[in-house]
User: What shape does this take?
Amino acid sequence: MMQKSLTVTTVMPMFYPATQYGGPIVQAYEVGKELLRRGHRVNVVTTDLGLVAETPRNTWVNVEGMRVWYGRTHAINRCVPYWEPQLKRPIVEVLPTTDVLQLRMALTLLNDLVRRLARRRRVPYIYNAEGSLCPTRLKTKAVEKWFFLRLFERRMLREAAALQAVTSVERGDLIAQGADPTRIHVIPNGVVLPTTNYHSSAARFRERWNLPPNATLILYLGRVSRLKGIEPLVRAFHRVRHVQPDAHLIIAGPGDGEERRLSELIQQLDLSGRVKLVGTVPGRECWQALREADLFALTSFTEGLPNAVLEALAAGLPVLCSHPCNLPEVAEYAAGEVVIPEESEIASSLTRMLADAELR
Assistant: This one.
């Protein structure tokens, strides 16, 4: 029996190509393309956060078959909790022909606006909090989030037709905030492998950053944020730097306010020749870096389900990750090690993995 073709409308504060905002943007973009491939229609209502000046605003544009509305923002719209009343017009416009709404990223006033509009039109919505309701994250700006949960977020969870959790851990976080367990579906993030051959030019990544040909490359790929546990990773690397004298650590990804502090730490530990902050790496170069690295490290204090680790595994790279990455399978399937995101634990794991190429 042929599946009914649906119109799916995604609403979120930012969207592709603003990938500097992390995994949720990449996932929404890839899910949208897959829905198109399966014969569905896709609308996306979002803002111009993170976009270049040339991108058209306040009109529908075609992004690889998706109809996307990039609403223009002003200073008041560009900060959490993303109050975006300018998006009411396109949302109201598409609701009559929308079969289901997809809301991504929690703790936003934009979600509450959509909830109220959808309720009037009786359009169901699926909600993906993207790991934002993790207790560790809720400790940041705890008072503000306490009020937001009670005034807005818990109603979002209660009224959702369905909720997506990317791990069983996140399922528990949603239930703790009052979500109906019967409406929660655990659907992990997916990985889209590159369709072109990136093997032949992979060495260019090492050449670009002047790494010795025999260097053992540890790669961090993600936002340069305090919650990503980069500081204990750098300190652990300092402790074990003599285990593998040729080891180098490259920290790649968009800045999130931590770059200066990390740069000072790297200088303080006299690691300038061994640890590099290289900024944002384009998508194709990310896969080149993964193929050329010897070890991938992500020692976050909190995650939903990190795309970077999934991509590293898909590229065949051994992984050192922390328990909050919610990937116990890394250890269970001998694909790497899972540790507490603490300096001594990370150092012990680095010691084992740097000293033994066969183990890697």
Notes: The longest strand covers residues 41-47. The mean pLDDT is 93.
